[in-house]
Amino acid sequence: MPQPPKRLTPSNSALDLFGSEVRRYRVLANHSIKQLADKIPYSASFIGAVERAESHCERTFAEHCDTALDTKEALAHLHDGLFGDKKDGFPEWFRKWPTVEEEAGTLKVYEPTVVYGLLQKEEYASALLFDDREAIDARLARQAILARTDPRPPRVVYVLPEFVLWYNVGGAEVMRAQLQYLAEISTPRLSVQVIPNGVPHPGNEGAFVLATLRDGQEIALAETAARGIMMDTREDISRLKDRFDAICTQALPTSMSADLINRTIEEKWRT
Question: Mind listing the pLDDT tens digit for each residue in 185-215?
């Protein structure tokens, strides 16, 4: 016997209200979640997570639902009212980058201090952002690109030093959940590779991301102590590509990285 849908209280949060309205319009259209998924480029599991207020979504999700359910743009309008421009929760220098992520076919990421934003769990992000709800929601909303089906999610190659696994963000419970997520998330389109402590590598000059857009354009974001800098000149991109390749040569394969992450959970974050 199927479980009844999760009861939502729309007044609890913007996510609850949006999820309840997606469910309401779907039911009014006499569609199951699977039937809706067959009509839009999002999986049934993602639609269910949105309806249960367990996942943020892009505005394009609302637009696709509006078309499939004939809502006369009600969900897109509601999305605008509840979430506005999802980039508003970002610092000024970062506001263009989420659009780059959305248009990327490939993202190559090196982040030496904390888990990269696209892969942060909500509790981990909350600890880093000091419970700033607007900033947390903006960061989590970026992650919708990993769940889309059309276009395909970007191919993400994420490399991090082992230190990140030991850096306490939010306490043991938050760290366990975050590291378990990293250990389990690898797919053919998303890899997590760890550089063991003590292995020399040229990644000591800060975090950076290399994005290759679906049209072939290459853009990078390199972080400094004060701000991030977007760059697209051939010389800068070539230098960062060489550095990323050199870093990758010192990283463990994905399966061995997952083993190292799981060992760290046992050794450091079990209470």
Answer: 989 899 999 999 977 776 677 899 999 999 9
Domains of the chain, each with CATH number or no CATH: 10-84 (1.10.260.40), 87-269 (3.30.870)
Strand ranges inside 111-232, DSSP E: 155-161, 190-195, 208-213, 218-223, 228-231
- Amino acid at position 140, single letter: L
Q: How many residues does the chain have?
A: 271
Strand arrangement of the beta sheet that strand 104-110 belongs to? 190-195, 155-161, 104-110, 208-213, 218-223, 228-231
Contacts of residue 20, Cβ cutoff 8 Å, sequence gap at least 6? 8, 10, 51, 53
Please give the model's pTM, rounded to 2 decimal places.
0.70
> For the chain, what is the mean pLDDT?
89
From CA 100, how far away is CA 94, in angstroms rounded? Answer: 10
Nearest to 107 by CA among 29, 214, 226, 254: 214
Distance linking the first and last C-alpha atoms of the chain: 37
Paired tokens of 165: 């696994």
Torsion of CA 61, 183, 118, 238, to 10 degrees: -120
Report the candidate in 270, 79, 90, 55 with the shortest Cα–Cα distance to residue 179.
270
Nearest-angstrom CA–CA distance, 189 and 216: 18
pLDDT digits (tens, 9 = 90+) for 143-201: 989 988 888 999 999 999 999 999 999 999 999 999 999 999 989 899 999 999 977 77
